[in-house]
Write a structure and sequence with these properties.
The chain has helices at residues 6-38, 56-61, 63-93, 99-104, 107-121, 126-131, 138-152, 157-165, 174-186, 211-214, and strands spanning 155-156, 190-195, 198-203. The protein is mostly helical and 215 residues long. The protein has two domains: 6-97, no CATH class; 105-214, Winged helix-like DNA-binding domain superfamily/Winged helix DNA-binding domain (Arc Repressor Mutant, subunit A, Orthogonal Bundle), CATH 1.10.10.10. The chain has a three-stranded antiparallel beta sheet with strand order 1-3-2. It is globular and about 65 Å long.
Length: 215
């Protein structure tokens, strides 16, 4: 195992912090810009990722400054969680029921977007989804987690429930799942068949937004 000197370690740490500071800066700017364009009328104060101010020379030389910067990095990571949460809460708690949304998208796209958004955000942020089960209604969360498997080969009640357990969602029982999936079926997203004693879910409608909706 190669030993790393204190100086080499600090230089590598500085490089990581510098990259994170740039990510925080660019992502925070983009997030705020898009928020102001689309969601500001519904929520004027989203949770924004704080800036990570960094003096490279001071970071290497001053341990107290270094500790302060690393604490700020930790807080910025926590901000990331709360930024996603505020986005999801605003989308599912206000935007998707607003006239803004209904004016901009057809009825079919409105339906698809509620599932598509959950799939894109929760489906790609597994660690986040393990910590937040409340911001997105459960039917969208279930499809976000199981969409690909339902599309490729179908899923039984047990398989869906097992996938939810991986997200630390353990309070959904089979009877609850059946009720939720019946609602998803009523919206034309899935079909339900019997496979032994269980329900078997297959995809009926792919989550594809129309060309008009993408504009």
């Amino acid at each position: 195992m190669t030993e790393v000197s204190e100086e080499e370690f600090l230089i590598k740490l500085l490089d990581v912090v510098y990259k994170l500071s740039n990510i925080a800066k660019t992502q925070s700017y983009r997030f705020k810009k898009k928020w102001d364009e689309y969601l500001k009328p519904l929520n004027k104060k989203p949770h924004i990722i704080r800036q990570i101010h960094l003096d490279k020379t001071k970071f290497l030389a001053d341990i107290d400054y270094r500790i302060k910067v690393l604490k700020n990095v930790e807080n910025a990571i926590v901000d990331g969680f709360h930024s996603i949460k505020s986005l999801l809460q605003t989308l599912y708690g206000a935007y998707f029921d607003s006239e803004l949304f209904k004016k901009d998208f057809s009825e079919d796209d409105q339906l698809v977007l509620k599932y598509f958004t959950a799939k894109q955000i929760l489906g790609n942020l597994i660690q986040y989804n393990k910590m937040d089960h409340e911001s997105v209604p459960m039917k969208y969360n279930i499809i976000a987690r199981n969409y690909t498997l339902i599309k490729l080969k179908g899923q039984t009640d047990t398989e869906v429930l097992d996938n939810l357990k991986k997200l630390n969602i353990t309070d959904i029982k089979q009877a609850d799942l059946i009720k939720i999936m019946q609602e998803v079926k009523s919206e034309g997203i899935i079909t339900i068949k019997k496979k032994g004693k269980e329900n078997f879910y297959e995809l009926k409608k792919e989550l594809i937004i129309s060309q008009e909706g993408k504009k």
